[in-house]
Amino acid sequence: MRFEGKTAIVTGGSRGIGRACVARLAAEGAKVAFVYNSNRQAAESLLDELKSAPGEVRALQADVRDLQRAHQLVDSLFDEWERIDVLINSAGVVKDGLLGAMTADQWREVIETNLGGTFNYCHAVTQPMMMARRGSIVNLSSTAAEFAARGQVNYAASKGGINGLTRALAKELAPRNVRVNAIAPGMIETDMSQVVRGIAGDQIKKMIPLKRIGRPEEIASVAAFLASDEAAYLTGQVVRVDGGLSLGGY
Amino acid sequence: MPTKEEVFEKIQAALVDALGVDDEDVTPEATLVGDLGAESIDFLDIVFRLEKAFDIKIPRGELFPEDILTDSKYIQEGKVTETGLAELRKRMPFANLDQFAKNPAVQDFGNLLTVADMCRFVEGKVEVTD
Ligand SMILES: NC(=O)c1ccc[n+]([C@@H]2O[C@H](COP(=O)([O-])OP(=O)(O)OC[C@H]3O[C@@H](n4cnc5c(N)ncnc54)[C@H](OP(=O)(O)O)[C@@H]3O)[C@@H](O)[C@H]2O)c1
């Protein structure tokens, strides 16, 4: 139980990768608060699922695009827990479209949720983590930051931004023993990738050296490792977890 | 209401925690950067600790107006301009800028702030008794 006595905040924790992260941390003893935005049912079903987990789990509604709300949420958890050990930024959206047809709203929503939300929650935990001289932040990036897909200008930019933010913040916070890393998943079986998998699933599998789509739990196990003291010497890295997809070649 | 002595003691404690220096290093005359080895991230840490210790809010950039020092409007060839100095004086009434003004090289700015300046800064935010 690597997270006994530890506390964690997971944004986008109600579904997909974030949900698997919440389950993993709770299974290893953490007190976890996860953030969801609109799908209350999904949040409640997770609470139900984890009722008998060794850790404690609670759901908090918040739009990650709201910085003030991020501070308020983190501050009240800190008042109660007196420590914030882990932050996992998994809240994210896709709004694909070719650039020529992309609306300003499509651009803004993706940048403000994926990159802005990551900034907001990093901003909110900086003070408690810095002062405690302890903490680990894990940001969900994507292989899409480096490997282009048509129709994802907004998404690729948001994830490239997360990679830059991760490295720069890692450098800022390293003297305070706070580590910041990112995970770049390839194709993972969640609601987000459902449409693409539906259209091109078999073709994509052929491109993946491990010949299958990844499971959310396979991202959560890496996130838990990065969040834990086992990764104490690891900071500023973007870890690709993609079944070998990004290896290229043939 | 804290006394001046108590303000100093809390600031001393904040600096000891933030900078890992010894109590006796934190004298009123000690400069934060030169004598106590503070780096830019430490200023953020110090501000966090002061906010907690005195239960006050310190807007970012108030104790250490980094924004002026990185604004090309106020900096020329590595030195703070006259307007920049005027701006600094306005923003930092708690600090004595006379010595710095003689040769206002940006790189020397950090070395200006002393522990006594910080005490004055905090005294301006909380009511103190003698
Ligand atoms: N799935 C993949 O193949 C894949 C690949 C690479 C990277 N990623 C990245 O991994 C992360 C998780 O993806 P996923 O596949 O797990 O997505 P998902 O299944 O669609 O889940 C997204 C989660 O984010 C939350 N969320 C969305 N907008 C929010 C907002 N404005 N404020 C608060 N929460 C918000 C959702 O909550 P509500 O339902 O309440 O809105 C939900 O919990 C994302 O950053 C994604 O870009 C995924």
Structure explained in plain terms:
The complex is a heterodimer of chains A (250) and B (130). With 250 residues, chain A is of the alpha/beta class. Chain A has one domain: Rossmann fold (3-Layer(aba) Sandwich). Chain A is built from 7 helices and 7 strands. In chain A, strands 3-2-1-4-5-6-7 form a 7-stranded parallel beta sheet, sandwiched between helices. The relative contact order of chain A is 0.15. Chain B folds into 2 domains: 80 residues, Non-ribosomal Peptide Synthetase Peptidyl Carrier Protein, Chain A, CATH 1.10.1200; 46 residues, no CATH class. In chain B, strands 1-2 form a two-stranded antiparallel ribbon. In chain B, a hairpin with a 2-residue loop joins strand 1 and strand 2. The interface between A and B is small, with 8 and 7 residues. NADP nicotinamide-adenine-dinucleotide phosphate binds next to helix 1, strand 2 and helix 4 of chain A.
Name the descriptors.
heterodimer; A: 250 residues; alpha/beta; Rossmann fold; 7-stranded parallel sheet; globular; B: 130 residues; mainly alpha; Non-ribosomal Peptide Synthetase Peptidyl Carrier Protein, Chain A; 2 domains; two-stranded antiparallel sheet; 7 helices; 2 strands; 3% strand; binds NADP nicotinamide-adenine-dinucleotide phosphate
